[in-house]
Automatic annotation (TrEMBL):
Localization (cell): Membrane
Naturally occurring in which organism (per UniProt): Oceanites oceanicus
Protein name stated in the entry: Leucine-rich repeat-containing protein 3
PANTHER family: ANTIGEN BSP, PUTATIVE-RELATED, LEUCINE-RICH REPEAT-CONTAINING PROTEIN 3
Gene that this sequence comes from: Lrrc3
The UniProt record lists the keyword Ribosomal protein: no
Amino acid sequence: QAFFCLLLCVPWGSSCPPSCQCTERAGAKAVLCSSRHLEEIPKDIPKDAVFLKLDANSITRIPSNAFRHLSHLEELDLSRNAIENIDRAAFKGVAAGLRTLDLSSNRIRSIPKEALLALNAKLRLANNPWHCECALQEVLWEARLDPDSVQDITCHTAPREEYVGKPLLQVLDAGVNFCSVRQRTTDVAMFITMFGWFAMVIVYVICYVRHNREDTCKHVEYLKSLPNTQGHAE
């Protein structure tokens, strides 16, 4: 009887990572891994986790498919880590159900827009050393950002020194468009390339014409040097 009781009491498929604490919150599984000196995301997080807190650790990277097996995940807290790199498919598998994603207070300078624009979650991106660029601008325009943290998304670096230290939203409100700057740069590069090809064609035509002219002159001189057949006939 004790054996069957043990089988009934053990929550099959709900093992908890050794460095975390798993609890129930409003009938949903919460996995708490805050301040556990983690350097990477645990691989044995229960599949039925709804709330996952990984804040205040030393995680530096979010690899592709890091949370793909957590189909029930709704809230993910990755704040106060040392995250620098986020792969394009970092949140693949949880994009549809995730409601909140906290990436604030990390070391993120840039992020692939594909990693965030597929999410329906409310994002917190404040207090990161952002490099203000087109991709970040597109995230700000299209993603669901937490309105309380938008003002804390500041330009740590930028194409122009005058933008450094300013909130990105303030810079954009002033009429700056990082995407148009990139487009102009692309257009200039394309123009230079086309001009280079055009110049090469012109040089080729000139050389071709000059070469043919020299051949023609040589041929004319050769014809002049031939005996006058009509004079001999007379």
